[in-house]
Design a protein that fits this description.
CATH topology of the largest domain: TIM Barrel
Shape: globular
Structural class: alpha/beta
Number of domains: 3
CATH class of the largest domain: Alpha Beta
Number of strands: 20
Helix content: 25-40%
CATH superfamily of the largest domain: Glycosidases
Bound molecules: alpha-D-glucopyranose, calcium ion
């Protein structure tokens, strides 16, 4: 079937279900809560939802450890509530994406339980290695979350590989039976009417034969041997050929370490196996490779990342655009300024919403939610944060260690959505499963609904505007002053329409700079975050201009 690339005109909203909205008062977000908010999501101008996992799971990694792929967790409302959400989305003309997590399962999944007991056909569903007489681990690989990548299983008397938490054993994708299971899962949801998948760390699924030691990487040891592994394109092509090609759906692959050239091998529109890719490069303007190696924010790095993807994918593949998701701290706290909260929140929105690609918003981003700061490390829930805190520099003071977690932890962005200024930010009538950010009295949806100048209304305006501009979908992109350390000035140009986006990332006034080719005199100001424009940009000022030729 020829792909109808409907996703190119869309804007997606990501729901991290535990913290979105509690519908039944047990303190945990759920699908009943989502049902209450579908109109709200649509009111933002979003045309689709990506759900982080909502399957049954023991919750060792907040749902990314799946115990049953073909069901919905009862605490989220089970299949019945899911059916209503799916129907509710489709009735509104919205699409629904599920999260496909098949690099690993939960250790509580039936397959693992049978595999560790060598019950056929599950014996080789996972990656097992015998214990060695010298007591050494099978190889020197690190897990991404909790120390080494191997854990000894008493039941089977062997080690299993886990690239993430101990409770997330990696599947053996080289086993054709495992690939058949994946296809079954895909068909199950697609037959139900789901519109596509976000594929969790999918670039990790093919491990190098023999699982050799890694002598290259100082951290994340092993990554060169499993990221973009030897059979990755073959397996993805198989899923496409056997499943996706038979449905009107789309796929979005998460790729932890990838550059545009390599990405094209996956997402080239004529030869690729998937439609879009989540890259991490644009998340590394204030860190080195991971949030846990922080550096000062560099606007140049941010622009460089954005621009590389804009230039190199142009005409060949489609960008996935995002500033936030459940794996990174909040963007205003990182790339913007909490002091200039409202201004920088809007500038950040404009900095990505007018690029070419399909934008994604993460819950709470549209009201400018900020990083949560716990009083002590015990309050952290996330498996990765807990491990990293325990192994952070003990010579530093507690304050410094906590500050680093604030800056890098995924929990900084996983607090409940702040709906109003009532108890628990209106997230639940019960006791919330996690802490609510104390700033909820100032930052919440209800307050911003009634303030025409709010970040929320600004997102609505920006998204609505984006949809009316053909240069946003078809135009060429250009970053005009890549070396400027305070301004991001990019244009989008197509026949008859020339768009110029100007964003200041300075906390002081700066002189506006625009390219000579842009005729400001005949330009129309379509959007901005200050009144009375002059040639001086105020702190975090942004403007979107258009010239119609
Ligand atoms: C992805 C998810 C993250 C999860 C990990 C392991 O990076 O986005 O939340 O913990 O994969 O599944
Ligand atoms: Ca609930």
């Amino acid at each position: 079937m020829e792909r109808n690339r409907w996703y190119k005109d869309m804007v997606f909203y990501q729901i991290w279900p535990r913290s979105f909205k509690d519908g039944n008062g047990d303190g945990m977000g759920d699908l009943w809560g989502v049902l209450e908010k579908l109109d709200y999501i649509q009111s933002l101008g979003c045309d689709g939802i990506w759900f982080s996992p909502i399957y049954p799971s023991p919750g060792a990694d907040c749902g990314y450890d799946i115990a049953d792929y073909m069901d919905i967790a009862p605490e989220f409302g089970g299949m019945e509530a899911f059916g209503q959400v799916l129907e509710g989305c489709h009735r509104r003309g919205m699409k629904l994406l599920m999260d496909l997590v098949v690099n690993h399962t939960s250790d509580e999944h039936e397959w693992f339980q049978k595999s560790r007991r060598r019950i056929e056909p599950y014996t080789d569903y996972y990656i097992w290695r015998p214990a060695r007489p010298d007591g050494k681990l099978p190889n020197n690989w690190d897990s991404n979350f909790e120390g080494k990548a191997w854990t000894y299983d008493e039941v089977r008397g062997e080690y299993y590989l886990h690239l993430f938490a101990v409770k997330q054993p990696d599947l053996n994708m080289d086993n054709p039976l495992v690939r058949e299971e994946v296809k079954k899962i895909l068909r199950f949801w697609l037959d139900m009417g789901v519109d596509g998948f976000r594929e969790d760390v999918i670039t990790y699924i093919s491990k190098k034969e023999g699982l050799p030691n890694d002598h290259l990487f100082p951290i994340y040891k092993g990554m060169p041997h499993y990221n973009h592994g030897p059979h990755i394109h073959e397996y993805l092509a198989e899923f496409k050929r056997d499943v996706f090609d038979h449905y009107d759906c789309f796929t979005l692959a998460e790729a932890p370490l990838v550059w545009p050239k390599q990405a094209l091998k996956y997402i080239d529109e004529t030869q690729g196996q998937i439609d879009m890719m989540i890259q991490f490069q644009s998340q590394c303007a204030d860190c080195l490779f991971t949030d846990y190696l922080p550096m000062p924010f560099s606007l140049r790095r941010m622009k460089h990342a954005f621009s590389q993807w804009q230039y190199k994918l142009a005409g060949r593949a489609w960008n996935m655009l995002y500033l936030e998701n459940h794996d990174h701290p909040r963007i205003i706290s990182r790339y913007g300024s909490e002091r200039y909260w409202k201004e920088s929140g809007k500038t950040l929105a404009v900095s990505y919403l007018f690029q070419q690609g399909t934008p994604f918003l993460y819950q709470g981003q549209e009201i400018g939610m900020l990083n949560w700061q716990p009083e002590n490390a015990e309050m952290y829930e996330d498996v990765q944060t807990r491990y990293n805190y325990a192994h952070s520099n003990l010579k530093k003071t507690e304050k410094v260690r906590l500050r680093k977690m604030w800056r890098s932890s995924r929990d900084s962005a996983r607090t409940p959505v702040q709906w109003d200024d009532s108890a628990n930010a209106g997230f639940t009538t019960g006791t919330p499963w996690f802490y609510v950010n104390e700033n909820y009295r100032e930052i919440n949806v209800a307050a911003q609904e009634s303030d025409p100048d709010s970040i929320l209304h600004f997102y609505r305006k920006a998204i609505a505007l984006r949809k009316t501009l053909k240069s946003v979908r078809y135009g060429t992109y250009r970053d005009h002053f890549p070396l400027h350390s305070k301004l991001y000035v990019y244009s989008r140009e197509t026949e008859g329409e020339h768009l110029l986006v100007v964003c200041s990332f300075a906390d002081k006034p700066v002189k506006m700079k625009i390219p000579r080719s842009f005729d400001l005199a005949s330009a129309e100001l379509l959007l901005g975050n200050y009144e009375n424009n002059s040639s001086i940009l105020r702190p975090y000022e942004c403007r979107v201009y258009r010239v119609q030729q």
